Amino acid sequence: MFLFRGMGTTISRLAKRFFTKNEMKILMVGLDASGKTTILYKLKLGATVATIPTIGFNTEAVEYKSISFTIWDAGGRDKIRPLWRQHFQNAQGLIFVVDSNDRERVAEARNELHRILNEKELSNVILLVFANKQDLPNSMPPAEVADQLGLHSLKHRPWYIQSTSAASGEGLYEGLEWLSENILTRQHDPGSCIDSSAK
Predict the structure, then answer these.
(1) pLDDT of 148-162, one tens digit each?
(2) Per-residue model confidence as pLDDT tens digits over 61-110
(3) Cβ(126)–Cβ(161) under 8 Å?
């Protein structure tokens, strides 16, 4: 009888995890022209749309498997960046988008990334980096982007870097897959250790 009840509890937990719609708040930031808004609407609509520089925030619900992501796309111009912190609270994941083809601004991207990671409200968020514009011939490979951003110095934060092309959609859902799995893992086992890697 005890075994039966235990099995029922286990099945109930599994059913809740896999058949209940999970909602996650994700903040997506990065420098201007890195491709954030194009990524957002590629995920939302499955199409490439014409965009203009974001002033403020775009917010969309993106459905993926059993996950409903509320993604906040923050404008990346330097005068707007202080506004990012308005949406730090309750964020479970952070997507940082990098223009892999823009070598001249990668140091600026690194500074902004580490600045926001030092914010108290984001101390526990899981980090996904989109190494975007991989379709361009002179783009830096993800491993180089990881080095340039100093990701390997993040000893106590789960992170992952995903090769992406906002134009084609390549790599976007693979990144969301990693992010959702790790957020769910943390929810069910807060003390779990998550491996970080570059792809």
Answers:
(1) 999 999 999 999 999
(2) 899 888 888 887 665 455 655 666 777 888 999 999 999 999 999 999 99
(3) no
Total length of the chain:
199
Return the structure tokens found at 123: 């101390």
**CB of 129 closer than 8 Å to CB of 96:** yes
Residue 7: count other Cβ atoms within 10 Å of its Cβ.
10
Query: What is the residue whose two structure tokens read 């925030």?
Result: 57
* Second CATH level (architecture) for the domain 21-198: 3-Layer(aba) Sandwich (3.40)
Q: What's the predicted TM-score (pTM) here?
A: 0.82
pLDDT exceeds 70 at position 186? yes
- Give Cβ neighbours of residue 5 (< 8 Å, ≥ 6 apart): none
Ranking 35-39, 50-54, 77-81, 134-138 by mean pLDDT, the lowest is 50-54
DSSP for the chain reads: -HHHHHHHHHHHHHHHHHHSPEEEEEEEEESTTSSHHHHHHHHHHSS-------SSEEEEEEEETTEEEEEEEE--STTTGGGGGGG-TT--EEEEEEETT-GGGHHHHHHHHHHHHTSGGGTT-EEEEEEE-TTSTTPPPHHHHHHHHTGGG-TTS-EEEEE-BTTTTBTHHHHHHHHHHHHHHHHH-TT-----EE-
